[in-house]
Records
---
Amino acid sequence: MQVSALPIFFQHLSESLQSTPNEVRRLFHGRGRRWPGLEQLTCDWLQGQLIVSVFKQVEDEFLAALRSGLVDLSQQPVCQQRALQSIVIQHRYQDGDPAEIVMGELDAAPVVEESGLRYQLNLGRNQNHGLFLDMRYGRNWVRDNAKHKNVLNLFAYTCGFSVAAIAGGADNVVNVDMAKASLSKGRENHHLNGHNLNQVKFFAHDIFKSWGKIKKFGPYDLVIIDPPSFQKGSFALTKDYQRILRRLPELLAEQGEVLACVNSPAVSCDFLIDGMKQEAPELQFQQRLSNPPEFADIDEQASLKALLFR
């Protein structure tokens, strides 16, 4: 990355802070490759905290200029107006993704809002803080289309889709994820929104070993599939996604829908469309959901792909 490009970064942050609503939001998405020299830099606004992520090792000169510019930014009137509490640089290229506090004091467990719903985040210790911000439109779609539905949420993580579904009037949601700790955070997210947990199930299971139990709570009106691109020992995108798709016909109710997602730049929409044709030809592609404008990419096929099938 280039030190000479950093003034563009700081200008963009200043302008975005003036226009961003008072909820969690990506402010700068260098990984969309629209700003040469800043491709490995992102910044998220977590309602009082700026989290700047650096994804590849950079020269000391770049880091020094980044720190200095962020301190200068914190003195701008817009940061005082937005009640900025802290600025953190997360070094995503180092083991453990260490967080460096540049200004203020880190709130490691903030509660933030998105589209009127509340989520508990965890900062400073993990690669991901608990809510994938590029999936905002996907959660909004689920909320708008979940009324009276039985929903299956595969690779549930911290249950953002589940929170959206219950908020939208879903009758029941089944969340499945191998990580028990993530599902516990999902339970907290439901509590934060005052939801009735009798409508929500949390299964810390290996999906591929649990189809019988998953099927028991169907048929499902909506199945959500949002896996990691790669998870050592449990999921490899190009090998394992098809194993899920072929199970869909036995899981879905008549007129059931599927929201199938993939966030790997290595595959295009055709990966899901062709995979569905091969493994579950009964399901027809309907549309690709738009991504939030702040996640624009020079190649839309490299960005998040959230596809609807019916």
---
Amino acid sequence: MAERQVNRYAENVLTCSENQQYRGEMVLDDSALVRIISGELKMVHGDRHYTFGAGDTFLFPRNQLSTMMKNGKDGKPYKAVIMRLTTAYLRDYYTKNEVLLEPAHSPEMLCFDKTPLLDSFFASIFPYFELDNQLPEKLVQIKMEEAIEILRSINPHIDRVLSDFSEAGKINLADFMEKNYMFNIPLEKFSHLTGRSLTTFKRDFKKAFQTSPQRWLTRKRLELAHYQLSEQQRKPVDVYYETGFENLSHFSRAFKSHFGYTPTALLQGK
């Protein structure tokens, strides 16, 4: 069972624990600095795959789609500590500090090598989960500034992610969907991320693809799954979720309906 612990006295710091395997999509409103304590996290972000284990640290940028798979490892459950770097605070920070690089409007996830600076930072926020009174706002700001200064010192390109304050505007729908169709999120989320109302999204989608979003998404996901099964020799259990299906049985039924044979039959040479 998943457990997400947020101390109401220090809301910018939280832990996430999973005693069982978890899979899901994620889009964050704020950038997040994440340290894996135990277990394993696999993520699909754009066309890249990441695997994080105990001791790994990465920055997850705001307004970016990812698929995550959390698992226990070495007899320990998945557990991570997250520091939210709020957009409001980052705006304030960058009005007072020079931005070294232009923001990237499609920022990538950034991974960091092990360093005493990050180790000491996370060690300093663990006690926040024991608080029984409000963490002063000034200290919240100090810890966020400390995190930013550490990141800027160890990664000269970090400003491209942290100083990107762009909001979801109306973007090229066809390009966005071709890059993100494998993410199993509601149409409402797709419409928001392309800067449209749901009604406008469906109308623009029909103009771009001459079919409904549901039909197009199913076809694209099945074609991707077929490629991974036939060309990469992957197993159905390893493919269905990464290609946008909620469970294996639904994937198998849709696959057979579309291609005329099951995923297993494909691997066995039909």
